[in-house]
């Protein structure tokens, strides 16, 4: 299955989700619409709403409710992106200027709040308390993950366990909420719902591990962001943590100083150090391990094109170069 093929099996639903997104973006304040439209039309993989559609349809769920849930998930994700870019002072996302670079921090934060609020209005429209419970808890955990990450900026003593806690909260949680809420909406058995919840968690971790690896192995043009951004912000990601733990004393010291000082003045030196210490290979192996564990969870689903698409999507998430 080619990368786009897992979108093709839900192509009509994807178009319908886009229509819901456009319809729900309406606001009597023009700047709200302008910024919200700018960020939602930026492209991106839209993996999270795709997961909602594939998981729901794998369990036999069809129709407007599933599409509405996919749109809700995309609104939650977009809100977090707006807030993240302000926190990280990012200037580029998906190959173009971030909303905060275009309009400033204050409007970006407030439109992020608008999208969060709109998503909860849409949840009320959906009318499922189990889904609302999953998503309201997820938004809290995501915020906690972001704050935990912020508290570890320029902290070279951050452990791998703390790093895993950060990515489980800030990234994997929304993947988990996507797959788990789709299962609940589809009336899954307790076993299926738990399997899809764990699937989302493992896939989200694998996805973030690859993101953190690509910060050192990717290139800015294909990534749509600046290579070395995490290093510039002083974020102790797994390649850096591993290099400090397993590299030579000189490599460990180079990385430690880079984290503590922030900035990416010696990006090439750091890239060479994490490569030589085997830290990028270690990160890739861990990502692949989580991806395989995610795929094993899918045994709980009926065989068919939707389950196969989820398997291929998982493999794509760790094989990608962007």
UniProtKB/TrEMBL annotation:
<keyword id="KW-0808">Transferase</keyword>
<dbReference type="InterPro" id="IPR000092">
    <property type="entry name" value="Polyprenyl_synt"/>
</dbReference>
<dbReference type="GO" id="GO:0046872">
    <property type="term" value="F:metal ion binding"/>
</dbReference>
<protein>
    <recommendedName>
        <fullName>Octaprenyl diphosphate synthase</fullName>
        <ecNumber>2.5.1.90</ecNumber>
    </recommendedName>
</protein>
<dbReference type="GO" id="GO:0106350">
    <property type="term" value="F:all-trans-octaprenyl-diphosphate synthase activity"/>
</dbReference>
<dbReference type="InterPro" id="IPR033749">
    <property type="entry name" value="Polyprenyl_synt_CS"/>
</dbReference>
<comment type="similarity">
    <text>Belongs to the FPP/GGPP synthase family.</text>
</comment>
<keyword id="KW-0460">Magnesium</keyword>
<dbReference type="Pfam" id="PF00348">
    <property type="entry name" value="polyprenyl_synt"/>
</dbReference>
<dbReference type="GO" id="GO:0008299">
    <property type="term" value="P:isoprenoid biosynthetic process"/>
</dbReference>
<dbReference type="InterPro" id="IPR008949">
    <property type="entry name" value="Isoprenoid_synthase_dom_sf"/>
</dbReference>
<comment type="function">
    <text>Supplies octaprenyl diphosphate, the precursor for the side chain of the isoprenoid quinones ubiquinone and menaquinone.</text>
</comment>
<keyword id="KW-0479">Metal-binding</keyword>
């Amino acid at each position: 299955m080619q990368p786009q093929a897992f979108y093709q099996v839900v192509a009509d639903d994807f178009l319908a989700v886009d229509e819901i997104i456009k319809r729900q973006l309406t606001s009597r304040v023009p700047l709200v619409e302008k910024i919200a439209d700018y960020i939602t039309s930026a492209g991106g993989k839209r993996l999270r709403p795709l997961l909602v559609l594939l998981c729901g349809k794998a369990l036999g769920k069809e129709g407007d409710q599933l599409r509405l849930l996919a749109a809700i998930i995309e609104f939650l994700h977009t809100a977090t992106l707006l807030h993240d870019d302000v926190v990280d002072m990012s200037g580029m996302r998906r190959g173009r200027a971030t909303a905060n670079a275009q309009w400033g921090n204050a409007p970006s934060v407030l439109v992020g709040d608008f999208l969060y609020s709109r998503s909860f209005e849409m949840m009320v429209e959906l009318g499922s308390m189990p889904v609302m419970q999953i998503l309201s808890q997820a938004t809290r955990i995501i915020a906690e993950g972001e704050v935990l990450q912020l508290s570890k900026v320029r902290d070279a003593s951050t452990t791998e366990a703390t790093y895993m806690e950060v990515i489980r909260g800030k990234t994997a949680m929304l993947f988990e909420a996507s797959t788990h809420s789709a299962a609940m909406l589809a009336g899954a058995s307790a076993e299926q719902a738990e399997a899809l919840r764990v699937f989302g968690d493992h896939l989200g971790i694998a996805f973030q591990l690859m993101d953190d690896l690509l910060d050192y192995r990717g290139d800015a043009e294909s990534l749509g962001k600046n290579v070395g951004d995490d290093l510039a912000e002083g974020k102790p990601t797994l390649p850096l943590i591993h290099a400090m733990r397993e590299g030579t004393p000189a490599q460990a010291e180079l990385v430690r100083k880079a984290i503590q000082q922030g900035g990416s003045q010696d990006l090439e030196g750091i890239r060479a150090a994490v490569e030589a210490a085997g830290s990028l290979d270690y990160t890739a192996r861990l990502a692949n391990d989580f991806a395989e564990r995610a795929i094993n969870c899918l045994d709980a689903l009926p065989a068919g094109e939707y389950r196969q698409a989820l398997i291929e999507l998982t493999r794509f998430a760790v094989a990608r170069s962007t």
